[in-house]
Recover the amino acids of this structure.
């Protein structure tokens, strides 16, 4: 009886097996350094990791880590189903003569020049390296989630660069940015706000070129939710002698506020999502990682890529004393309530008099 039904059982089992890929036995491989991965092609990335952490990033969440993260966005978002561009394909490096001339890419010559020798030394594609470096940069920023990494992006082919105008500018309004992000990668308004958590580990070099490295929040070397709190403060001053294009007054001395971040915190399409991340790090981490993973494969069919997420090191937690707060000298009265359906969460101010946030040391 059992043998008579065996073919039926086998057919049924293979159907279930095919439908639930998770049950498929993994092709585990042990790399030369003893690490275990799901696909042996991923082993090639451990030497890259061991090189770039000390030698490209100085093992810190500083200027080079910030630049690598921004570069991953500018390469990936250069994609439109109707206007062209190859997405996360490394075209920003391979066709830098074209893409660095786009005004939105100002300043990216720095991370590109930093990354090129490592790309050459490890003989990987620029598209893969840009997204790998960004995923690794986050592991150096305490509080950031561990994001994934897919390998297999081929070299971009001409005419890969899309037209100018695909990368959002800080002087674009919220509608324009949301439309662009939906077109580039199907991102929802909440996805876009979540991606802006990246501005927690960030600053501006070119918005006001007289003050390079001016941070967007008071804690640019940790991935926390201070960006969502501090951009909601009433703007009172510019960090430089005069505002740059796409800059508005910030609420904290030494901090630079992008007009786009300011508007995202206040526009009715995004203000409640913005507020929902203030003080809620787990929510921010989850939403950011989900959107970032989708961003890093724009322009590719995931079936053509290999999941090498197991090469990405564990995330670093935020220090236990890094609670969300108002900057010293501020009160909840300084918060500009924008979301109509819920109150902004309450935070206490750091003790002491108001201080100025120092610039991010430039590499
Ligand atoms: C969607 C609208 C966005 C706009 C308008 C925008 C705009 C800007 C601008 C103007 C700067 C300053 C550049 C400079 O002067 O050096 C900047 C920095 C930065 N951005 Fe964005 N950004 C956006 C989204 C993103 C996303 C999605 C990411 C990554 C996931 C990102 C990551 C960064 C990082 C890490 C920096 C700091 C770079 C550094 O310190 O060297 N941004 N952004």
């Amino acid at each position: 009886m059992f043998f008579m039904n065996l073919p039926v059982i086998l057919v049924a089992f293979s159907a279930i097996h095919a439908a639930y890929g998770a049950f498929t036995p993994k092709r585990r491989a042990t790399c030369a350094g003893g690490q275990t991965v799901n696909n042996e092609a991923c082993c090639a990335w451990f030497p890259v990791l061991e090189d770039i952490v000390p030698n490209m990033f100085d093992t810190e969440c500083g200027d080079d880590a910030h630049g690598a993260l921004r570069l991953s966005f500018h390469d990936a978002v250069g994609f439109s189903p109707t206007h062209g561009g190859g997405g996360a394909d490394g075209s920003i490096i391979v066709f830098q003569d074209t893409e660095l001339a786009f005004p939105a890419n100002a300043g990216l010559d720095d991370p590109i020049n930093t990354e090129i020798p490592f790309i050459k030394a490890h003989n990987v594609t620029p598209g893969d390296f840009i997204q790998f470096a960004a995923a690794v940069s986050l592991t150096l920023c305490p509080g950031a989630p561990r994001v994934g990494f897919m390998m297999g992006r081929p070299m971009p082919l001409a005419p890969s660069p899309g037209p100018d105008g695909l990368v959002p500018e800080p002087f674009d309004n919220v509608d324009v940015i949301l439309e662009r992000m939906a077109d580039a990668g199907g991102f929802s308004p909440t996805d876009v706000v979540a991606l802006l958590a990246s501005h927690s580990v960030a600053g501006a070099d070119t918005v006001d070129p007289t003050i390079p490295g001016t941070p967007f929040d008071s804690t640019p070397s940790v991935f926390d939710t201070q960006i969502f709190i501090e951009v909601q403060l009433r703007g009172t001053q510019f960090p430089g002698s005069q505002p740059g294009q796409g800059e508005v007054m910030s609420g904290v001395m030494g901090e630079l506020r992008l007009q786009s971040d300011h508007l995202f915190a206040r526009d009715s399409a995004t203000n409640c999502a913005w507020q929902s991340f203030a003080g809620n790090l787990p929510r921010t981490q989850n939403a950011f990682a989900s959107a970032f993973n989708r961003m890093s494969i724009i322009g590719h069919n995931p079936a053509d890529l290999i999941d090498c997420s197991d090469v990405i090191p564990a995330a670093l937690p935020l220090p236990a004393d890094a609670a969300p707060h108002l900057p010293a000298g501020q009160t909840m009265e300084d918060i500009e309530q924008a979301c109509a359906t819920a109150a902004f969460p309450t935070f206490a101010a750091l003790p002491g008099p108001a201080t100025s946030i120092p610039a991010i040391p430039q590499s």
Summary: The first strand starts at residue 29 and ends at 30. The chain has 13 helices and eight strands. Residues 1-25 have pLDDT under 50 and may be disordered.
